[in-house]
């Protein structure tokens, strides 16, 4: 399992690559949390496009990150899931806490759209 | 196991490995390779691999408290009519209340970010799931899936 981060403003995109099981979940969890803290990330986009395998350990990773970022009012978005990973996430009710998106670009647009709405005033003030 | 069962079994294997988390992928890949001659669909293969991963990681996480000196056993039987039987056995702490353990979202380790969805995933990806457990003795998880008929040429 490999992990790669992309940042834009207060958004972090987590690109996962490979098999997400119990063995890899602890490293993945630590890496994400460390990066969130370092970059003061508010919103998280999980990109599952290159995840070839996932079991319930992946659910735990997503739920745990949701708990972390939702405390600061951040959003959790998920994109790129295969039909089979979607089934597992649906089973666990993940889409009640996270938004399922078509792609990364749409995910960023959604968060930025919200930011503009909320931040319109403060931007005018600048 | 009676004679009838023996006649039913066309192929079988038994693996035993250390209670280490890197063996989770070994176990699911080994089972996938073993049933490959049946020519399962990609979907069936993924479902079986996921179920194996759930049962094996439960043994590693819960049964033995990640003690790497213990051993986990995975057996796979291929029976008549494309029935695949997978048995995952540990000699760990066992489960007090199997019915409760099988409930969706039940976990005894919420602080370790477990979601309590393992048994639910096994149940929905396989046709049948049986859990036999004795506290202090161990747990045996039996999963059965009948593969769809392959195209014959
Ligand atoms: N082999 C086992 N030995 C002892 N206890 C087990 C075993 N397998 C499962 N359990 C118990 O059953 C509970 C439910 O298991 P299940 O796989 O559904 O969820 P989990 O492992 O806690 O979380 P997840 O699989 O979603 O990461 C576990 O929390 C544990 O208490
Ligand atoms: Mg489990």
Average pLDDT over all residues of chain B: 94
SSE arrangement of chain A, N to C: EEHEHEHEH
Q: What share of residues are in beta strands of chain B? A: 25-35%
* SS class of chain A: alpha/beta
Highest-level CATH class of chain A: Alpha Beta
Total domain modules of chain B: 1
Q: List segments of chain B where confidence is low: pLDDT < 50 over at least 5 consecutive residues.
A: none
- According to CATH, the homologous superfamily of chain A is STAS domain
Distance between the termini of chain A: 43 Å
CATH superfamily label of chain B: Histidine kinase-like ATPase, C-terminal domain
Please give a structural write-up.
The complex is a heterodimer of chains A (126) and B (153). Helices cover 51% and strands 29% of the residues of chain A. A 5-stranded mixed β-sheet of chain A has the order 1-2-3-4-5, sandwiched between helices. In chain A, strand 3, helix 2 and strand 4 form a beta-alpha-beta unit. Chain A starts with a strand and ends with a helix. By secondary structure, chain B is α+β, with helices and mostly antiparallel strands. Helices cover 35% and strands 28% of the residues of chain B. Chain B has 5 helices and 5 strands; from the N terminus they run αβααββααββ. In chain B, helix 2 packs antiparallel against helix 3 and helix 3 runs antiparallel to helix 5. Chain B is globular, with a radius of gyration of 15 Å. The interface between A and B is medium-sized, with 21 and 26 residues. The structure holds adenosine-5'-triphosphate (ATP) and magnesium ion (MG). The site of magnesium ion (MG) has 4 residues of chain B, from helix 3.
């Amino acid at each position: 399992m490999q992990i790669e981060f992309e940042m834009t403003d207060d958004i972090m995109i987590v690109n996962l690559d490979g098999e997400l099981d119990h063995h890899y979940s602890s490293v993945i969890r630590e890496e994400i949390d460390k990066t969130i803290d370092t970059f003061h990330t508010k919103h998280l986009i999980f990109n599952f496009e290159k995840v070839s395998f996932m079991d319930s350990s992946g659910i735990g990773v997503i739920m745990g990150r949701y708990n972390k970022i939702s405390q600061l009012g951040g959003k959790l978005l998920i994109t790129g899931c295969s039909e089979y990973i979607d089934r597992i996430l649906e089973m666990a009710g993940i889409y009640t806490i996270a938004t399922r998106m078509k792609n990364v670009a749409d995910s960023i647009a959604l968060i930025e759209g919200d930011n503009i709405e909320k931040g319109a005033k403060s931007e005018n003030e600048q | 196991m009676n004679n009838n069962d023996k006649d039913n079994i066309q192929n079988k294997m038994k693996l035993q490995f250390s209670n280490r988390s890197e063996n989770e992928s070994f176990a699911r890949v080994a089972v996938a390779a073993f049933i490959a001659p049946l020519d399962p669909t990609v979907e069936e293969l993924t479902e079986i691999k996921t179920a194996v991963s759930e049962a094996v990681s439960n043994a590693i996480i819960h049964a033995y408290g990640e003690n790497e000196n213990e051993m986990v056993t995975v057996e796979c039987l291929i029976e008549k009519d494309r029935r695949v039987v997978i048995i995952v056995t540990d000699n760990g702490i066992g489960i007090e209340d199997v019915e409760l353990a099988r409930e969706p979202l039940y976990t005894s380790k919420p602080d370790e970010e477990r979601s309590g969805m393992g048994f639910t995933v096994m149940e929905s990806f396989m046709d049948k799931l049986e859990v036999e457990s004795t506290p202090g003795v161990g747990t045996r998880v039996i999963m059965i899936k009948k593969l769809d008929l392959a195209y014959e040429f």
